[in-house]
Amino acid sequence: MGKLQKSLKTRHITMISIGGVIGTGLFVGTGKNILSTGPAVVVSYAIACLLIVFIMQMVGEMASGELAMGEKAGGNAEMGSFASYAGKYIGPWAGFTVGWLYWASWVFIVGLEAALIGGMLNAWFPFIPIWVGSVGITLLMTLINIYSVKSFGEFEYWLSFIKVTAIIVFLAVGAAMIFGFWPTYEPQGLSILTAHGGFAPNGIIPILTAIVFVIFSICGAEVAAIAAAESENPAKNIVRAIRNVVFRLGLFFVGSVAIMVMILPWNDADNLAAPYANILTMAGLPIAAQIIQIVIFISLISVLNSALYTSSRMLLEMSRHGDAPKFFSLIKNKRGAPVPAIIGSTVVAYICAMLYFVSPDVIFYFLGNCVGGLMIAVYIFIAISQIRFRRHYDNNSDTPLTIRMWLFPYLSYATIAILSLVYLCQMMIDSLRAQFYLSTAVLIVSVLLFFVLKKLSPRTSEVVEENLKPESN
Q1: pLDDT (tens digit per residue) in 220-233
Q2: Does residue 8 sit in helix, strand or coil?
Q3: pTM (2 decimals)?
């Protein structure tokens, strides 16, 4: 079957963990959230970031625990495999559901990013058809992933480096403007937070509903935990990746939004259409708009690259646990790349990208409306898995956990409750109501599909259940 090569270096994991959540949602969606919520959107971002931090802490706890138990038993650790965690500690149906929903969400993201990249290339170079740019970029990322995990890590390292540098420049310039250190800008002080209808001009409900949009923008932090399993020092790097999540979410997301609402009136729709570029332009940097466009393009490529990597690893794990065809568990080259899983994910991603051109308002819209809700559902499964994992671990192991969820079990239960509330909040937003119903339907169908397949192939199901059963000392 072959083994994945642990060829990612610590610097790869560090930069992937720092830049992993910096996507187009941060550059494009932030202004829309401010317009709908007002300055109080800072609270929405803080709550959403805390939820993701909690989820990452849970993932880190399970990953470090699985590593410790795997080493003690002389077997393989299942770091970062959310499907295997759910399968072990909730039930095989949960592992099946989480695996396929998570895989499908990331494969669709590959297709979405490819379509957007094709559109940007066509806008810059009209002689390049959109579909050519989409297919070409996806093919390039596929080849990079197939060559080796190290090539993926190196490519993602530099993409993340550019994104992080751009955000740091924005934060530095914005902070200088706010505190009066920038010569061409006169700061407005704290009064700007209440001068245009108050801190929460549209009330409390928009603060809560904005959390939905923010979570959709920052999902993907867990990619670093998956990548840590293929690094030179998994135990050390999983801890490093989790700790970086707290720092980067607070600085990049909450920090960026705080700077925006301190410089731009919350109802300034023109400037908030492209807040990063416009604030830098206000600071006297005339080429800021062009630079931000390039950074957005790089972010699209980075997300596509990470999405292809993540979906292929999830397909590989599902195959190894019997939830996907065994063919996808093969490691087909000497560098340890799961070629069948990468190609399988790429083929489906191509189909998703083509749907953007064939049926953008029906099929593609349907798929897109499922992704956000399904990600929240996966996070809820992760939280439930962590609660059951901790109880199993405490009863069967005396090795201290490298990472522990804070205030267990209370904070774990609170996270589940808040995520469930956020999921239900989709019904309160006109633009997300369809997403709620579609994602809920897909979730139910996925669970039913497991039991249908189990009935059709009972022997395989019994083997899978036995493999996923937690072992006792």
Answers
A1: 777 777 777 777 77
A2: strand
A3: 0.88
